[in-house]
Design brief:
The structure is a single chain. The chain has about 180 residues and is mostly beta strands. The chain has one helix and twelve strands.
Length: about 180
Amino acid sequence: KDETHTFVQFNLLPTKRAVYFFALFNTTGPLPVLYDTKRNHEANELVRLAFDAGLELDFRNKNNCSSEVSFRDNDDHDLPRNHTSLGRFFDVEVTDQNGLEANLTFTFNATALAERGINLNRLRWAVLHENGTWLVQGGTVTGSVLVHTTTHFSSWAVLVAPASSDSGNGATPTTGQAKSS
């Protein structure tokens, strides 16, 4: 390794046949990864991970940690009053969340959502509270991206706020409401 390049050396046995695949990608961007795979991270390392279904995580933690993310398109917990779901629920587990600084980013197809009648400025990140209800945390919509900054990971969802919240980008958290029986 020198200041601008990293070298990898492979010692191949001439009597063995094999197929090798190599990938080259920009390391300043997020690393494309799969759900349900545990990853280890060094203390103070900037971690940038990109997942299918529009999720990107950028975080830095003060301690060594591991992370694992899972995705589901439905959830049985109560949504906040008059909110609807986009069907994007993410369980983000990070061990030893000491001094965690993170951005949750959801990239969406603005045209497809507009065709469904969804006002993009009503998109919100919500976190699953320990009492089993979703709490709206907000987020900022720029183009086709919803971003929220947080200091912890747990279960997160992308919700659509009611029309009464069109004036802003969700700066005021909303508590969940229990379902009526």
